[in-house]
Amino acid sequence: MLHIVACIKQVPDTKIIKMNPKTNTMDRSSAPAILNPYDAHAVEEAVRLRNRYGGVVSVLTMGPPPAVKAIRKCIEIGADEGYMITDRAFAGADTLATSYALTKALEKIAQTRPIDLIICGKMTIDGDTGQVGPGIARRLDMPPLTSVNKVVEIDEEMKCAIVHRKLEDGYEVVRSELPCLLSVEKEINEVPYSSLPNMLRAARYQPHIWAVADLSDIDKTQLGLKGSPTIVSSVWAPPKPQGGKILEGAPAEQVSQLLDILMSRQELFAAATGGGAS
């Protein structure tokens, strides 16, 4: 019986998020928290695979106590179990520290039910790095398959998975041993509206919640800010685009004006780069 774990994250809605210029961090209080859109597709794919092959879908997240809402959203989608690690020691984690903490939680989950497949979203909309999934795979010594846009087959008897990986000019078919980790694209599926029974179950659902003390053989120096070698040195808003110049007059006059503009810009570019006009 397959045990699939989807790693998810609650993120601020980046459509209306603001940055704190003093701390160079996101002002998370300025926007509502939502389930990371890529992770919703990861959970949906895990549910589809469970429905196809049988098994159990668990979801795992790291975050503050309100992140329970993201787990409940996954239960609405169709997940069976939810796990959350939450502790002040996790605060300020970059992708390296996050992958370490999630790996320790996955090892604890696997003690009760061995894990066959881990599915992550391609990236989170608040970080856009796509590093956590491969980081988990590296720590667990399992193959990472990134940019997956189709799961062709899961063969439990042969212990392998066949997937399509998205490329710039098409896709490639990859066969991997199990267990492995997939990071999936949004186009892998469509997340449907939740069914009423799932919504009712999600409203009452209480996930398994662990603190640092509940995890085994953990190095606290690899957690949170202490375990995060990367920092954001500065942030700034991009300049607003200026309005375009409207060319007036007869077509021939407009062409002449356009040529003058292009030639002046070419001269400016040549002066800035030390080159000559050609």
What is the number of helices? 6
SSE topology string: EEEEEHEHEHEHEEEEHEH
Please identify the structural class as seen in this structure. alpha/beta
* Shape, principal axes of CA atoms: globular
Q: How many DSSP-defined strands?
A: 13
Share of helix among residues? 25-40%
Q: Low-confidence parts lasting 5 or more residues at pLDDT below 50?
A: none
The whole-angstrom Rg is 24 Å
Write out the strand line-up for the largest beta sheet, numbering strands in chain order.
11-10-9-12-8-1-6-7-13
Give the termini separation: 68 Å
What is the makeup of the main sheet?
9 strands, mixed
Average pLDDT over all residues: 90
Strand content bin: 25-35%
Question: Would you summarize the structure shown here?
Answer:
This protein is of the alpha/beta class and 278 residues long.
What does this structure look like?
With 278 residues, the protein is an alpha/beta fold. Helix content is 31%, strand content 26%. The chain has a 9-stranded mixed sheet with strand order 11-10-9-12-8-1-6-7-13, sandwiched between helices. A two-stranded antiparallel sheet has the order 2-5. A hairpin with a 4-residue loop joins strand 3 and strand 4 (25-27). The longest helix is centred in the C-terminal third of the chain and has 23 residues, at 251-273.
Q: Topology, please?
A:
Layout (H helix, E strand, L loop, with lengths): L1 E6 L2 E3 L5 E3 L4 E3 L5 E3 L1 H17 L1 E8 L5 H10 L3 E5 L9 H18 L4 E5 L10 H9 L3 E12 L4 E8 L2 E8 L2 E5 L11 H9 L3 E3 L40 H23 L5
Parallel strand pairs: 1-6, 1-8, 6-7, 7-13, 8-12, 9-12
Antiparallel strand pairs: 2-5, 3-4, 9-10, 10-11
Helix pairs in contact: 2-5, 3-4
